[in-house]
């Protein structure tokens, strides 16, 4: 049985997957979640984290034939991990995320600022394109209480990839939440948005989970079921 390795996105630690990990285990899956370098508030070296150190941490945490699940901004480090060690992963699943192409910068506006905190208001979060649909006040309060700023070495530096095409052959599933799968594939084919451009090189499957940008809180059981079914393929 493959193990499922859950990777949270910006501002989040492994705790963010708790409501998904339980249902996955009840379905018989082996599950672990990883707090990426830079997102552990107790780490004195937190601000030195980079996309490269995050990708290496994912590879180091993985076992042979792991299923890798990445949410949101973690898609960058996850894709870089499949580039470093494609043999470690039997499938990669992007939850409201995508494999990001070489040169892509998650937050180019950050510049030389040391870190990228969670915006001060939820209106700013939604204005940046991250839907809060399905989240109640308790969820939002927990999010803000536990959010950790993302180091500039992660948020404001480009994705780097090697020359090998082996990463393109890792079976891939895209779980579409904020945008329906039909629109994601249209944006992929148009090639105008770098976020979806790399998908043109990958024979991915697309599944829909209509909700906001944080499906691990808004629809955790449904997300777990989609991940479990993808694992069986």
Automatic annotation (TrEMBL):
Occurrences of domain AB hydrolase-1 (ranges) = 4-225
Keyword Hydrolase applies? yes
Coiled coil, from the record: none
The question of whether Hydrolase is a record keyword is answered with yes
- Spell out the InterPro entries in the cross-references: AB_hydrolase_1, AB_hydrolase_fold
Q: Which UniProt keywords apply?
A: Hydrolase
Which GO molecular function annotation, any one, does this entry have? hydrolase activity
- The protein depicted here goes by the name Alpha/beta fold hydrolase
Organism whose genome encodes this protein: Nocardia aurantiaca
Lineage of source species: Bacteria, Bacillati, Actinomycetota, Actinomycetes, Mycobacteriales
């Amino acid at each position: 049985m493959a193990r499922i390795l859950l990777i949270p996105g910006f501002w989040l630690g492994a705790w963010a997957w708790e409501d998904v990990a339980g249902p996955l285990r009840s379905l018989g899956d082996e599950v672990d979640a990883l707090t990426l370098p830079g997102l552990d508030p107790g780490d004195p070296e937190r601000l030195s984290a980079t996309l490269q150190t995050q990708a290496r941490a994912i590879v180091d945490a993985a076992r042979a034939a792991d299923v890798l699940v990445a949410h949101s901004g973690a898609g960058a480090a996850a894709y870089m991990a499949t580039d470093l060690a494609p043999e470690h992963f039997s499938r990669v699943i992007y939850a409201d995320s995508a494999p990001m192409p070489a040169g892509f910068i998650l937050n180019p506006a950050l510049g030389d600022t040391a870190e990228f905190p969670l915006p001060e208001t939820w209106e700013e979060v939604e204005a940046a394109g991250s839907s809060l649909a399905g989240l109640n006040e308790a969820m939002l309060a927990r999010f803000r209480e536990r959010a950790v700023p993302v180091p500039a070495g992660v948020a404001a530096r480009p994705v780097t990839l090697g020359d090998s095409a082996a990463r393109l052959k890792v079976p891939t599933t895209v779980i579409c939440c904020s945008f329906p799968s039909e629109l994601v594939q249209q944006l992929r084919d148009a090639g105008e948005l770098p976020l979806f451009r790399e998908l043109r090189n990958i024979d991915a499957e697309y599944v829909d989970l209509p909700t906001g940008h944080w499906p691990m809180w808004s629809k955790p059981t449904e997300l777990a079921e989609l991940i479990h079914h993808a694992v069986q393929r």
